[in-house]
């Protein structure tokens, strides 16, 4: 099972307000944090993870601090997404129902979608509800991001991985593809 950690910047929050979302292949813990230091503390305390993605305004400084913490996980972030605005994060789970699998942390709503083909419609509904930025999981890539950008009139970002994270991200992807092909 793949262990993912999604950290979401939320001012004045309690990291204990975390959510765990699990499917057949992965266990994703979504944790609101109010600072870079808190993000490092969560990573240090949560146990081994394979992948870390940063959202809601956690950018370059957070990625650098987490990389220095040395967990060995692939660390991805959606750029230096300032200013912090109401945002929506989309990630893929083939069994997800976007109406049910959604969580709000401060001004950020995190939504699991069943397929990247659903990303544009879900993103448009989130923008209609007030999202000022759409952030896409690193597993989605530029093709769905371009489709979402064409469907909404707010900035769209996608999580990318720095050079230091490429070996861990590549190993994660290879193991994930292997697990998916075995499960088919």
Automatic annotation (TrEMBL):
Lineage top rank: taxon: Bacteria
Protein name as annotated: DUF6506 family protein
């Amino acid at each position: 099972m793949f262990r993912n950690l999604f950290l979401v910047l939320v001012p004045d929050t309690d990291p204990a307000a975390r959510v765990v979302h699990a499917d057949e292949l992965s266990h994703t813990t979504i944790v609101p944090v109010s600072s870079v230091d808190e993000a490092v503390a969560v990573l240090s305390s949560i146990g081994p993870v394979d992948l870390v993605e940063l959202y809601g305004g956690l950018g370059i400084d957070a990625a650098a601090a987490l990389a220095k913490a040395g967990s060995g996980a692939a660390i991805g972030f959606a750029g230096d997404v300032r200013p912090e605005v109401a945002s929506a994060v989309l990630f893929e789970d083939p069994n997800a129902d976007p109406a049910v699998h959604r969580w709000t942390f401060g001004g950020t709503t995190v939504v699991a979608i069943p397929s990247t083909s659903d990303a544009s419609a879900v993103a448009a509904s989130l923008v209609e509800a007030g999202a000022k930025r759409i952030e896409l999981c690193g597993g989605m890539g530029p093709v769905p991001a371009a489709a979402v950008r064409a469907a909404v009139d707010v900035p769209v970002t996608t999580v990318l991985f720095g050079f230091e994270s490429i070996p861990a991200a590549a190993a994660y992807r290879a193991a994930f593809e292997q697990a998916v092909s075995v499960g088919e």
